[in-house]
């Protein structure tokens, strides 16, 4: 009969006594009274107050500490490529690390990151997200149809502000080379360029949306384009990646 090695026996016993992460540590609220030496331990019946416990530690709901990692690509609502961030362990192990979006922040990886990013301009976490958002916009610009006008940067800033996007300086806006006036065809869109943080130039699709302050002349307004304000971000990201203008993921974490 073959005998079991001490090492195998030791390993089997060790596996049997692995701590369970779902255990709950309790403390009795009311300590039990002392028993007489000449009396049996089971002679006293347990009362209701003896079954009251307080939770000391619940390892099932205890939040595990976050893990430090290096992002290798842009991730929405998390950070830009090259940033060192703290993320949830499950998020890192189930999504970021398997997809190659992040690496462990080991001393070796941190040293390589320092060499790669030395002398380069680091973008803010939301810069690429805003760049992708602008490239996928169909911006309507409301202009009075019955008064002469020429499109200016102030008109574009007002149109962005109406959609909840604030542009601080007119210098970041580049208008089309051919001036857009009130005679422009409402069915023909045009492009306006917006520079994000002085680095990325986003091309925004715009179209004229005629209006009037005179209610009696609303029936004379020509038909305008009916486009969604935002295109699907996955579609925009794939188009920009094909042109080499965008890197990163469109998933929100």
Q: Could you characterize what this model shows?
A:
The structure is a single chain. By secondary structure, the chain is α+β, with helices and mostly antiparallel strands. Among the domains are: 51 residues, Ribosomal protein L9, N-terminal domain (Ribosomal Protein L9, domain 1, 3-Layer(aba) Sandwich); 116 residues, Roll (Ribosomal Protein L9, domain 2). The protein has 6 helices and 9 strands; from the N terminus they run αββββαβααβαβββα. Strands 6-9-8-7 form a 4-stranded mixed sheet. Strand 8 and strand 9 form a beta hairpin. The longest helix is centred in the first third of the chain and has 11 residues. The radius of gyration is 33 Å and the shape is elongated. The N terminus is likely disordered.
Q: Report mean pLDDT, rounded to a whole number.
A: 81
Number of strands: 9
Biggest sheet, spatial arrangement of strands:
6-9-8-7
- Unreliably modeled segments: 1-15
Terminal CA distance reads 58 Å
Describe the global form: elongated
Per DSSP, the total helix count is 6
CATH topology of the domain at 127-242: Ribosomal Protein L9, domain 2
Helix-strand sequence: HEEEEHEHHEHEEEH
Q: From the helix content, strand content and strand pairing, which structural class follows?
A: alpha+beta
Gyration radius (Cα, Å) is: 33 Å
Strand content: 15-25%
CATH superfamily heading of the domain at 127-242: Ribosomal protein L9, C-terminal domain
Main beta-sheet strand count, sense and barrel state: 4 strands, mixed
Give the name of the CATH architecture of the domain at 127-242. Answer: Roll
Helix share, percent: 10-25%
């Amino acid at each position: 009969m073959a005998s079991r090695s001490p090492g195998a026996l030791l390993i089997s016993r060790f596996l049997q006594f692995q701590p369970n992460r779902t255990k709950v540590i309790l403390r009795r609220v009311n300590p039990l009274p002392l028993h007489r030496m000449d009396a049996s331990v089971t002679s006293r019946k347990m009362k209701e107050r003896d079954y009251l416990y307080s939770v000391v530690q619940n390892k099932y709901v205890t939040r595990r500490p976050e893990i430090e990692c290096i992002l290798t690509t842009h991730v929405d609502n998390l950070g830009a490529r090259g940033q060192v961030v703290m993320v949830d362990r499950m998020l890192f192990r189930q999504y970021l690390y398997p997809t190659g979006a992040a690496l462990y922040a080991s001393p070796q990886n941190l040293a390589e990151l320092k060499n790669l990013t030395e002398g380069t301009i680091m973008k803010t976490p939301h810069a690429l997200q805003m760049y992708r958002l602008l490239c996928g916009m169909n911006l309507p610009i409301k202009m009075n149809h019955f008064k002469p006008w020429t499109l200016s940067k102030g008109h574009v800033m007002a149109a962005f502000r109406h959609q909840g996007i604030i542009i601080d300086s007119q210098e970041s806006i580049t208008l089309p080379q051919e001036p857009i006036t009130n005679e422009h065809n409402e069915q023909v869109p045009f492009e306006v360029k917006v520079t994000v943080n002085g680095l990325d130039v986003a091309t925004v699709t715009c179209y004229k949306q005629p209006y009037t302050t005179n209610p009696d002349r609303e029936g004379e307004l020509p038909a305008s384009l009916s486009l969604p304000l935002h295109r699907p971000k996955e579609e925009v990201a794939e188009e920009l990646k094909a042109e080499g203008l965008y890197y990163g993921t469109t998933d929100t974490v």
